[in-house]
Design brief:
CATH architecture of the largest domain in chain A: 3-Layer(aba) Sandwich
Strand content of chain A: 15-25%
Largest interface: A-B, 26 and 26 residues
Number of domains of chain A: 2
Strand order of the largest sheet of chain A: 8-7-6-9-10-11
Structural class of chain A: alpha/beta
Radius of gyration of chain A: 22 Å
Distance between the termini of chain A: 14 Å
Oligomer: homotetramer
CATH class of the largest domain in chain A: Alpha Beta
CATH superfamily of the largest domain in chain A: NAD(P)-binding Rossmann-like Domain
Shape of chain A: elongated
Number of strands of chain A: 11
CATH topology of the largest domain in chain A: Rossmann fold
Order of helices and strands of chain A: EHEHHEHEHEHEHEHEEHEHEHHH
Helix content of chain A: 25-40%
Chain lengths: 295, 295, 295, 295
């Protein structure tokens, strides 16, 4: 399926290690840099020198996001720092580079835009595959937070996008009672067809009497108006990326517990998340016809 | 369905509080004793005096187990102690008492056998209902322990009793690949019929290459012989009651992680577990025709 | 939810009768015309005169399609005929009319375009809701055609649109092994995520060894090239609307059984299909703000 | 798994043919007798002479039941008859014979009891495996009989034995609303745990407002008393073996449609049913240690 290739993984969290190990299992040569042996516990030994790691690589894989501070590479398992300076940039210049959140690199300066960056994190198929570990992570949090079972619980999923679809299915499969809110007539038809109680996101009922409300919509759905509808004891797990969908000051004031839960695949299921990055990169290599070039 | 009745809940953990609150919701009068307000955070105020609590009660509900030390009532949320002495016993003498693990009370002395103890924990329907929070708890532990998702995982459930049946169903419903081992031809037929891979508990395969093995059988299944079959990285969640089904010394030696997980309903889902005790007591009252007597 | 309203149902098959009965259950006044009592077996008595039926109606409901021959109303349960002539058209002129396949009426002549026709069958939410009875009908046909169970069967669903999504879910829920073919990377990601084997519609494998292939794509997918890939005994259920997705001459020549299956909701589940028309019309009335006007 | 063996299949319906073909696929030698080529349409050619068929056989497989009239072998696909006379009996005398419903053979006379008959149909694992095609057949009948979908239907399954368990699961998986009635507290606990509405078979509600009632209990559950509870339009599919669980005279009088549905695996899914017989015989051979003897 895939041809034996030389990969170099630089930086990232546990996902990078699991991805590297999975690439090796598939028969590829893999070198890693930007990890400290003792922090990863992995069998694969990080290279001590970046040039050794890059040498002879067909593809370089950078983490998602590439950088958090705009100055150094995102490498939380590394004892040292990797500066995103000209020296580093030049090393990458002629390489095929896969990365996530490429915009964070572009923001550093014009010259970085000349790199051959292929962004796996901006692809929708990547997002779909990640909806599974996200939904599972959300359920794990719900299990930890609730004093009852999912099986006997009553849940509201706000939004019927990728995560809403997978999450509502898994909650129902675990025996929970599931309402799903959306905005479009099409979504209502699907929600009804799949056996959930359909609600309108823009017109939520007066009494939100749920064990957990999962918000997946990246807008301020839970403003004062909707928070006041929440019955006592309701918990909100906010899966929307920052700044999230909940007015947390008002929630605090009303004593509604809000759990902000982002980046769940990397935090809760780094092995699966690493596999997803790998599979997405394989698809991109195939689409671009790079397997052959790389030989 | 149920007639307004006076209940008195004495001792127990969070399950007792949730049960008391649920009894009140159903319209009953409930008094509790053996809890300290600040430890429970419940709205219901514990009585300061046991006689006040018992006064006029139709039914008394004691926890499961009634006692852990054979001397005092099992009341972990109480600042003080309730001695299981003659004085206490006499207070209970003419009462209808529901309790769990009545044997622990019988062991104290002959006189305790004269009490009208109705044991909810020894009923099989109670055990069936508890298999759901047990299975969910096991899945929550698996989610915490695994670096991949349940959806992408490969699991072995050893034993196809109550917990094995519910657990394997939930794992499969979450997308996992599930093998189930059992001993009888009937169980093999059911396992196959329900879509799991059937294995023989007495003759497990040479290579147990699973993300998690859930043991539900209260015998030493995982002795040295079977532990040696476990592939690297396998985790065992042992749901069998003490002493469990795993030779933990050998497991330690082989660096196999074993998580002993008992009493999950009370620990992970006290609200659901409290509801289950309540429902079981309702059924017992109905079966014994006690609703009428109690009026 | 809905306000008491006067409906008039003219023509159509059993769906019209079930819809009329359902409207009555919801508290509306309903008159029907274009049915013969003995053919319908319904409790509701058809009006003998169209003017009696139309009199005082707020909404008129015509069938889907309105006409099959371009000359008379589609009314298979009527002993007589209803000509789509000027006289009939004038009766409808000031009315709010719901119908399916309005194009068949527009084709008759310019004047028909002036009617206030609201087409329920062209709405996507209508199509989504109808995917359920379509998928069930397809499974019923598969059960009739196959000498094995769905539970033990191996199925290919070609296309991952509305019907493909529901059908593959139901087949899997019945225990079948399901492959789904699609064209886009997004669909592959969803297919994989939902636990089916993903295939490329444009590049089907060399050996199509399935019990049943369900085609949902309205293009000639099964031309000579793909039909030659079908293993012995494969049956194709073609759910694509006419002319369908199978080269039936070649299939005949190769002795591959093809079952052309269209219009399944009306044929197999007229009661559910009638409910779906009713619900869609309710939504349209609400969207258009016609409940108020009609009072 | 299984060792190459000589099988002889004598008599039976389509299940015998599918079983013979499946045995051949597994690598065994198979001869068949008691079929007419043109009636079976099978590729395997029946022997013209029973002695040729029996010659050198390790195992003989007779149908279920072996005989319907007590005089001739059950061989509906045979143009001729096979008398169960002394001559035939002697041919079987030293053979290992698998059959179904061995009692029908024992009833012929004492001498038949000396044969080495191994009855696959009396095994409970056989019955469990057959519950799947039975449940699917019941659903197929319900689909044919109902004018709505299973997805939108409301069903009562009477009895929670093998068939009740599988049938209620499949109905729910197809989206239907399912109530299950049983008699024991344990069954109620399981029914509740699995997410169905639990009812008491001995105390069914006053209004049985279901689309279909599936009876699996071989007692006269639907006597006048319970039939009078059935709301208009209810259909009863009676899966209990003769004489079934419905007072059909009263049902006729009350205009309640009753579909008597027995022997569904053989009628609706002969291929799967043949596989189940084969698998059961394999298990019996293994349990009896006959693979080795047969060499």
């Amino acid at each position: 399926m895939t041809e034996k290739t030389n990969f170099c993984v630089i930086g990232g969290d546990a996902r990078g290690i699991f991805m590297a190990e999975s690439l090796i299992k598939d028969g590829h040569n893999v070198k890693i840099y930007g990890y400290s042996q003792k922090k990863t516990g992995a069998k694969i030994t990080p290279k001590k020198d970046i040039d050794l790691a890059l040498d002879n690589s067909d593809f370089i894989i950078l983490p998602v996001p590439v950088t958090r501070d705009g100055k150094t590479l995102n490498a939380p398992l590394f004892d040292s720092k990797i500066d995103l300076d000209d020296e580093f940039r030049k090393k990458l210049e002629t390489k095929n580079i896969f990365c996530g959140g490429s915009g964070t690199l572009h923001n550093i300066g014009e010259k970085w835009k000349n790199l051959c960056l292929m962004d796996y994190s901006s692809r929708e198929d990547f997002a779909i595959l990640n909806a599974v570990p996200t939904a599972e992570g959300a359920i794990q949090i719900a299990m930890q937070e609730c004093e009852g079972t999912i099986d006997s619980g009553n849940f509201l999923v706000v939004g019927f996008g990728r995560i809403g679809k997978i999450l509502s299915k898994k909650l129902k499969n675990l025996g929970g009672k599931v309402s799903v809110s959306a905005r479009s007539a099409l979504d209502f038809a699907w929600i009804q067809t799949l056996g959930y109680e359909p609600l309108e996101t823009n017109n939520l009922p007066e009494f939100l009497d749920y064990d957990v409300i999962f918000n997946t919509v990246p807008h301020r759905i839970f403003d004062r108006y909707n928070l006041l509808k929440c019955c006592e004891g309701v918990k909100i797990i906010d899966l929307a990326s920052s700044p999230g969908g909940v007015d947390s000051d008002t929630a605090d004031f009303l004593d509604i517990k809000v759990i902000s839960a982002t980046g769940l695949p990397g935090k809760f299921s780094p092995k699966t998340a690493g596999e997803i990055i790998k599979k997405t990169i394989y698809k991109m290599i195939k689409e671009e016809g790079l397997w052959k070039k790389s030989k």
